[in-house]
Amino acid sequence: MIFNSSKYISSFPESLLPNDASPEWNNKADNAWQLIAATLVGLQSVPGLVILYGSMVKKKWAVNSAFMGLYAFSAVLVCWVLWAHQMAFGNKLFPFVGKPNFALNEKFLLSKASTQYYLPMADFVFYQFAFAAITLVLLAGSLLGRMNFYAWMLFVPMWLTLSYTVGAFSIWGNGFLEGKIIDYAGGFVIHLSSGVAGFTAAYWVGPRSSNDRKNFPPNNIIHMLGGAGFLWMGWTGFNGGAPFQVGEITSLAIFNTHLCTATSILVWLSLDMFVYKKGSLIGSVQGMITGLVCITPGAGLVVPWAAILMGALSGSIPWYTMMVLHKRSSFFQSVDDTLGVFHTHAVAGILGGILSGIFAKPSLLKMLYGPETSYGPGLFYSYFYGNVGQGIRQILYQLLGAFFITLWNVVITSLVCIIVSLIMDLRMQEEDLEVGDDAAHGEEAYVLWGDGEKRILPLRIHINSPTIISISHQRHSIPINKIDE
């Protein structure tokens, strides 16, 4: 059925017709998709990683782990609009960071995002906030099960300000690496930085209690899988929103993202079955994450066969560093990275960044960045185009980007941890580490009598009648039928 709206519009009052609320430069399709993409990225953190973290940890740390993610997500948004967005994407202060300023002005938020993007600046600010927030939430995965929550509350705004904004401005903003490093959607800016910073912060905070480090089973694997599902499907917005327009690159990026991820899962699963003779759901989730991370820096810039190859490598190289090298290396053993964020994000992020420098296709680079782009070509294509020197140069730039992000995060994360430690303890008290959530927040994820890990209090037995015994523990009271003598 064809609906002709023109004859109806003429009868509407003039005040109801389209006006300045949708200026000529605003592409409604781009605008709508960008808001959806930003929401999908936000859902990766809340509820995605919140559920994933709260389920992957030991039962007594479920609330604390989820709470760290929720706090980081909300705190980053406030800091982002007050000063951090402009430090990452505003006017240059230094070659590596912009001037801090508000991103709250109505005129600013409703203006055209840039000469390249046909949508309001508010879309750009919100989408980039979601990127910044998930970086902090990912970082938290290295610190679960022992960090003082109040120290975490200070750590989040400090690290966002001193570390994340620098990486974002240097590579994506108007910094000294902009136009040189291929990082389509954050392999370096988000994943390498969160993996390196998480590992560094884990060193300063110290390890979990000896009991937790030896025995740390997930409390709900099915819920863990639900959180992982939010993360995987949310990556449609993570990589699909990076071009800030609805076009061929967006479609290709989404397709490559899921293709690489599925390949990575199958390779990780195959290695688990070959070496350990059993398939692991937790291992498959790790393989899912490494696939998502690896494809991110080149999702819209490589062709599908390259995405499959990247998935095969992301399912095998991080598997080796996590399952083999980590266990053999005294260096890795000396730092308690709770969820292995270094392997799933730093290793996979560097791998994806280098592979993007190899497989980035010149025509796709021009389609996204314009015909005069200074990126690339990828080393693989440079051979066929007769300009191998340019391909080698791009690989060297990729390595330079990895080196800069790694070094900056090691130094700044250490500095932030040292400053916070001068104000309060980075780590919970040892007696509280044995208790977990109840000591940290006075709450438990599973309030079942006798099934939580709580402070041991005296057990009181009351004889109410010849046939009933009431046993009370703290607030709980359970009647038990007396067995006939």
Automatic annotation (TrEMBL):
It is a multi-pass membrane protein. The keyword Iron does not apply. The chain crosses the membrane at residues 32-54, 61-83, 124-144, 151-172, 184-206, 218-237, 249-269, 338-360, 395-423. Residues 32-446 form the Ammonium transporter AmtB-like domain. One of its GO terms (molecular function) is ammonium channel activity. Signal peptide: none annotated. One of its GO terms (cellular component) is plasma membrane. This is Ammonium transporter. It comes from Pisum sativum.
